[in-house]
Specification:
This protein is mainly α. The protein has one domain (5-285). Helix content is 74%, strand content 4%. The protein has helices spanning 5-27, 30-55, 64-80, 93-114, 120-145, 158-181, 195-216, 221-249, 264-285; strands at residues 87-88, 91-92, 185-187, 190-194. The strands form 2 sheets. A two-stranded antiparallel ribbon has the order 1-2. Strands 3-4 form a two-stranded antiparallel ribbon. The chain is globular and about 55 Å long. The N and C termini lie far apart (41 Å).
Length: 286
């Protein structure tokens, strides 16, 4: 894949703007943190439905209640698995989400039954989407709690930030080195990716994040090393999974949310796959 300066310029500008939005959501307060991942979940789940409808013709024929109801279910799922300290008029969003969620699922099921469009494959696709997207993203609320009341104060945003920065550095370095020196295709699923770029991305992500972030974030460098390594390696598998879905669907991008980057799934595919693994390694370590 040859280096394209104009494409890189567009990708860089959009990435900077997007990075500012992400950092604001991560650091500002608990509501901005929740809202950030709530919106990401909505965008990813919407694009997931579009992709799977192209892959499986039967999924294209689900009822409007099933289609839009799944987005509501995903949102309620995020609320149910959300932080305890967020509430509306004194009522926790976890309580609101957990009480409404069963009713929405029941409405979708009853609608499918009475419209005679109930299909186990379609329900499996929708269920997989809930596991893949809102359940994965909801783990950020737990990652946020690891450093909420540390010896150094409230650094609750630090681990989510480390995970996301590791993915971004890995993607950027893999793109640059893959464009400049990449010769060996990584996989037929994603022919533009190379082994040289992938390996360089992982190594540089681990080194840069461990050394640079280690100066500013009050976490032992070895833990930063683990987080960046797991995020970078698992993120590549997430990217390949998304490439496979797009190939099956016959599309280049899942959407057009970011110029030069594509849609929500194109931007967050690595994060969706890496988050459960980072969460798991932290459970083991702590």
């Amino acid at each position: 894949m040859a280096f394209n300066a104009s494409v890189f310029k567009v990708r860089t500008i959009s990435a900077i703007v997007f990075g500012i939005i992400m950092l604001t959501g991560l650091i500002w307060n608990s509501w901005s943190f929740f809202t950030l991942f709530f919106i990401i979940q909505m965008g990813c789940l919407f694009e997931y439905q579009k992709l799977l409808a192209l892959i499986f013709p039967s999924y294209k024929n689900i009822t409007p209640i099933h289609k839009w109801g799944l987005l509501v279910v995903g949102s309620l799922f995020m609320m149910t698995l959300g932080p305890l300290d967020l509430g509306i008029n004194g009522v926790s969003i976890k309580f609101i989400g957990s009480r409404i969620l069963p009713f929405v699922i029941a409405i979708i099921l009853i609608t499918d039954i009475f419209s005679k469009k109930i299909n186990l494959q379609n329900w499996a696709i929708s269920f997989a989407g809930l596991i893949y997207i809102p359940m994965s993203l909801s783990l950020f609320f737990q990652l946020k709690s690891f450093m909420a009341n540390s010896y150094f104060g409230n650094w609750s945003f630090s681990i989510p930030l480390l995970l996301i920065v590791s993915i971004w550095v890995n993607d950027t370095m893999a793109y640059l080195f893959g464009s400049l020196i990449g010769k060996t295709p990584l996989s037929p699923i994603s022919p533009n990716k190379t082994w040289e770029g992938t390996i360089a991305g992982i190594i540089l992500s681990v080194l840069i994040v461990s050394k640079v972030m280690g100066i500013y974030v009050p976490i032992q460098e070895k833990y930063i090393f683990y987080i960046s390594l797991i995020a970078s390696v698992a993120g590549n598998f997430g990217d390949l999974l998304q490439s496979k879905l797009k190939r099956l669907a016959g599309v280049k991008d899942s959407g057009s949310m970011m110029p030069g980057h594509g849609g929500f799934l194109d931007r967050f595919d690595s994060i969706l796959f890496a988050t459960p693994f980072v969460w798991l390694i932290l459970q083991i370590l702590f």
